[in-house]
Prior knowledge:
With 204 residues, the protein is an alpha/beta fold. It is built from four helices and eight strands, in the order βαββββαβαβαβ.
Amino acid sequence: MNALLLIDLQYDFMPGGALAVKHGDEVVSVANELMPRFGLVVASQDWHPSDHASFASQHPGKKPGDVIQLDGLEQTLWPDHCVQGSHGAELHAELDVERIARVIHKGTDKRVDSYSAFFDNARRRATGLEAYLRGKGVEAVYLMGLATDYCVKFSALDAAELGFRTSVYKQGCRGIDLQPGDVDKAWEAMQQGGATLLDALDTP
Ligand code: VGL
Ligand code: ZN
């Protein structure tokens, strides 16, 4: 079975959102085009408590983009975003949500961030995505979403490491590029990590 993983297609990552990714809204139609072609569609949702430690607002004197040590891990600080229950945390309304079989929340523990849809950044806890996919007999995953250089990258790397045949739709992703070149480096890292990068919307 092949699964489509839609990564963080939430208002806060789209133009006008708290952590806007340039042209992030353009990938919603890509998701809608791809969904009917997959036997299983799963979406991740960045889902933070309002006092999440990845928010610069929780660290006096710090601003978004600063990097701190958090429990021994490097943590980039972000504007408050994807707060549980807020409009910014919602999946984009134009998504065909009835085709999404399961939504996986991540970043719910205020002490640790979670870029990957599979594990938190300290790899202390699984989100349940792997167990869900295994239960459905999924062997290959196809990813797209936001943002290329964070959640898409780490989700793809974990998927490949977990042994799923992993492909990423380049057209279905947009990145942050906090440092110019981050997105290009992310593509390289995904490829190095065993993911296949797809230039077209080919389906299995
Ligand atoms: C993301 C930064 C912080 C993402 C989530 O979805 O790529 N990036 N939280
Ligand atoms: Zn986040």
